[in-house]
Write a structure and sequence with these properties.
The chain is globular and about 55 Å long. The chain has helices spanning 8-14, 38-51, 81-98, 116-125, 140-149, 182-186, 190-197, 210-229, and strands at 20-25, 102-107, 130-135. The protein has 232 residues and is mainly α. 40% of the residues lie in helices and 8% in strands.
């Protein structure tokens, strides 16, 4: 149940029988030859596919995140951590006001992960609330599936190259890119990051077959759905 395809009457009626919802978190940042909206596209689609059989509302993905290290790449938008925390708190407070009590956050961007503490505090501050923070791509079963396909996988590599994040009529490099020096990367300015990683891929092949990617996606969807169905 996508919020964008629902009206308020339907959500009010839903809240009479259930209090679960899904909030995807994304980002607008460089992903080499893929869409700048990869993280938002993936988090919202993951949330939708996981929640659809359960008829649980899925809110639109928050399209901006914390990504200062990619500000050397045009099109990237980064929020201050304090801003992002405030936005997330306001969103969660709004959901609580209307009767949502169990919120699954499906996060698609590693830079957003530090706000897990905000979710924990929000749970403590609101009676009966529960908030789960789910980095879908590095959840145990999904990450194991990634490694089983190819242990060389990272940001903007094949593991984020799905039919729905791929841009039409763009050629992909055919070689496997060596891993970036992560220690050096962590100590670099945005312009230094751009010089270090070049096209934006951290390391790995740029594309795998759609058969492989669909199998990986199905593992991730099932793992995400388990969080909605399980004990809260």
């Amino acid at each position: 149940m996508k919020i964008s395809e629902s009206n308020w009457f339907e959500i009010e009626e839903y809240l009479e029988r259930d209090d679960r919802c899904v909030l995807p978190l994304g980002s607008t940042e460089q992903h080499a030859f893929l869409s700048l909206s990869v993280d938002s596209i993936l988090s919202e689609r993951m949330a939708r596919d996981a929640a659809e059989p359960l008829n649980i509302p899925v809110f639109p993905a928050v399209p901006y995140g914390v990504t200062p290290y990619f500000m050397g790449f045009p099109g990237t938008v980064s929020l201050r951590t304090s801003t992002y925390e405030a936005v997330l708190c306001d969103v969660l407070d709004s959901l609580y006001t209307h009767g949502f009590r169990r919120v699954l956050i499906v996060n698609g961007h590693g830079g957003n992960s530090p706000v897990q503490s905000v979710c924990a505090q929000w749970t403590l501050d609101n009676a009966g609330a529960a908030c789960r923070f789910h980095d879908w791509w590095r959840a145990p079963k999904t990450w194991a599936a990634v490694k089983a396909v190819d242990p060389v996988a990272s940001h903007a590599s094949w593991m984020e190259n799905f039919p729905w994040t791929r841009l039409p009529d763009r050629e992909m490099p055919q070689e496997q890119k060596p891993f970036v020096d992560f220690e050096r990367l962590r100590q670099s300015t945005p312009q230094e990051v751009r010089a270090l990683i070049g096209d934006g891929n951290y390391g790995g092949e740029y594309q795998k077959s759609d058969v492989i990617m669909n199998e990986l996606w199905n593992v991730a969807v099932a793992e995400t759905r388990e969080l909605l169905e399980g004990e809260w």
